[in-house]
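> run fold Protein DETOXIFICATION
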Amino acid sequence: MGVEKMQLGSREEKRCEEVTWGGFAGELKKVGCLAAPMVVATVSQYLLQVASVVMVGHLGQVSLSAVAIATALTNVTGFSLLVSLLLFSNSCHERLAGGLETLCGQAYGAHQYGKLGIYTYSATISLALVCLPICLLWIFMDKLLILIGQDPLIAHEARNYSIWLIPGLYGSAILKPLVRYLQTQSLIFPMLISSLIILGLHIPICWSLVFKLELGNVGAAVAISISSWLNVVLLVLYVKYSSACEKTRMSFSKDAFFVMGEFFHFAVPAAVILKWWSCELLTLLSGLLPNPKLESSILAICLTITTLHFTIPYGLGAVASTRVSNELGAGNPQAARVAVWAVMFLAIIETTVVSTTLFCCRYVLGYAYSQRQANCGQRCSNGSSDLSLHCHGQHTRSSFWLVPCLPCTLFSLICFSHAFKSYSTLLSIITGLTNWKKQANKARERIFEGPSSVENRSELNEPKRISDEVVTN
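> ok
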């Protein structure tokens, strides 16, 4: 009798691990419903920066070059850092936000709603503390840029732009945790509406500050800071008064200080996003070329276009993080695995469509940023065609901008191409070999603070082993 039960349990477990096309299609539909508004919201947020660069580009090469270099340095040392810290298990302002995404997602999946508020408060405090040394760096940015050989005029303009981005940096320190807080609950539409409203306000505000009030570069930075805080206000009002956040909404607790160590433990490894740094490093190196004003402005146009494309897979990655962390926290490892492959399928389709579109429009995209023939036309089209390779993770031909020596260029081409192919291959192997059941157990142990807690709560909080939409009956 006992043997029959063991065999029956083994057959049940094996059957549960089988996934049908219908189950995959169901998960694909679920992911698509979350991904579409999330991608639009992510792109809308990045368009704030694009709109500012577009308007500054019509002021002249010096202004565009200064904003390009300032944006590169502020992204590397500030905004990208915060995002990564919030995304730690999935993917420095952007990088610090990464720890929160996993913790909140697993807590929500395990129905530990109170912990979402604690984690969000903890992340906000942590990011605000990280902003302090970043601000000092931005204030003295001109001296740093001149030290590494940048044009003094461009360095001075870049410093002015960065200083007026500091209020926006603190706005992002609050905004990023709020976005992860809503995202892990699949509350995507509030972020979508908020992002579209802010984008609609940002364009006239930026145009007025840059051209009407003649603030130039500073006006573009002020507009970004204003838009960041307006976005914070809208989302805070939604969290405070919406019934959808009733379960997870809580007042500030001193427990937020106690989990800061856990937050940084998971978040700091994600703060090292070398691919992001390598892209921004190209902009800084372009300032060392014989004609830095022209070369920096051209590269700024190319990288702004390609980064705009990268926001789409980042949106898909955010959805993948939400689905996977929710399912792992709920104890559904198979559903988490299927969610990963569903998002990968969407990413392949998106890459193909965007790469083709970017290549076909390569001759006209540059004119949105500048009317100067030297900044557009063939030179930008060459950059755009190269940047279509970015869609496949190959940062190869960008080396031609920086290295005049053919042997060095060929060496860089081969190294970058093979490096990113190997990187993608390794990630695919790791994903394919992941023990999802083990990851689900680890997630629930983390949320319930130990294996014993999981066993004690199993009867009160028993998850569905696998979603009906994912597995066969």
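Residues 1-16, 88-99, 373-414, 450-473 have pLDDT under 50 and may be disordered.
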